């Protein structure tokens, strides 16, 4: 995953805000830290996609 993220980092616009989501939240946290270390504005979706799915119901 990190290699793929590193290859596509140059495609992101630092003036935009990015919402990071994964199933539970663990990978999201690591990916967010990685992207933030390059100066990107990142917001985390707490609880991951499973929490969103439960709230939606």
Structural class assignment:
alpha+beta
CATH topology: Oxidized Rhodanese, domain 1
Low-confidence stretches: none
Average pLDDT value? 83
CATH architecture: 3-Layer(aba) Sandwich
Biggest sheet details: 2 strands, parallel
Distance between the termini: 30 Å
Rg, rounded, reads 12 Å
Number of alpha- plus pi-helical segments = 3
The side-by-side strand order for the widest beta sheet comes to 1-2
> What is the count of β-strands?
2
Please describe what this structure looks like:
It is a single chain. The chain contains three helices and two strands, in the order αβαβα. With 57 residues, it is of the alpha+beta class. The protein has one domain: Rhodanese-like domain (Oxidized Rhodanese, domain 1), CATH 3.40.250. The model has no long low-confidence stretch (mean pLDDT 83).
Short description:
This protein has helices at residues 2-8, 26-36, 48-56; strands at 17-20, 41-44. It has 57 residues and is an alpha+beta fold.
Which helices and strands appear, and what pairs or packs with what?
Layout: H1 2-8, E1 17-20, H2 26-36, E2 41-44, H3 48-56
Parallel strand pairs: 1-2
